[in-house]
Amino acid sequence: MLTVHTSHLNTPTLLDSPDVMAVVDFAQTPGPRPEDPRQMVTPLGSQANLREVWTTSSGPVTSGQTGRIQFVRSGTETIGTLVLEDAGQAIETLAYRAYTELLTWLDAQPHQHLWRVWNFLADINIGDGDQERYRLFSVGRLRALRESAVPDRALPPATAIGCQAPLVYLMFIAGGQPCQPVENPRQLSAYRYPRRYGPASPSFARAARVDAGSLIVSGTASIVGHETQHPGDWARQLDETHRNLEALTAHAGVEAAPRALRAYLRPEVPLGPVVERIRARWGEHLDVIPLVGEICRTDLMLEIEGVWPLSAHTTADRSAAASRAAEV
Ligand code: 3EB
Questions:
Q1: Distance 256 CA to ligand 1 centre (A)
Q2: Is the pTM of this model over 0.85?
Q3: For residue 296, how far is its CA from the centre of ligand 1 (angstroms)?
Q4: Per residue in 20-67, pLDDT tens?
Q5: In this structure, which of 24, 181, 193, 247 has its CB flanked by the most CB atoms within 10 Å?
């Protein structure tokens, strides 16, 4: 089983624990990729000296590299990164190549089912209309997913954020069993967004139960239905985002406080007040990792994601119900 927490400890100290699969660091200008696949440097700046630490109860943990994929594996999960340099090639092609490489590789691995993907790319909002880089990225991503026959209902939770470094940086988690996606009753499924948001819908689930312990929640923003709410007002966008997270976690049957939260903020949004307000809603003891980046819609100022603990009985009920449904 997988779990996550945030920590102020330094990376070498955290990597001393045998159950650690990934220490996720953040840097606006990441240096050379670390050789240890357990060390993942997300290309976004953060003022907080906080790392995200993913641990497993299914050790031993091993690691390796295949092509541009670095991975870390336990008995039940694989966590990895895939990094492509962006030297000005078409972003649709880069997205297609990155996803094709990842999906082809996953096909031959013991843990074939995507549980979570993070997407970071430079200049995400550059380009007008359907030529915007985020929209073209979504086209390449969807083409690769279709070719490997991943159906919409099996899409994992995701995040897509603009970075400064000239990279396409993917971080992923995969499991031996499929995750169980959960959609948000207040939001249209992203893979059903209407044409006006681009030629290809964004390919992700709002959240998923990934094992008996965790609900992984996608980057969540101030969108109701499919429409952005409160453009230009970060405080009201934050409140709307909280309502979305409440509706989603309630729908998934989760009651406890989140285990870890990240907040992605456009550079003009004040970091301190946002973190304070997030803590006021979800728990004063919580560490929130604030990150500076561009949200994929130009009218969105911030986005929040996280992992919520599942209570044992909820999971058992749901998987019993799911297997009964599958038998029908
Ligand atoms: C939204 O809800 C906001 O393209 O992978 C959130 C999470 C968003 C993931 C993605 C996009 C993605 O539509 C944007």
A1: 24
A2: yes
A3: 7
A4: 999 999 999 999 999 999 999 999 999 899 999 999 999 999 999 999
A5: 24
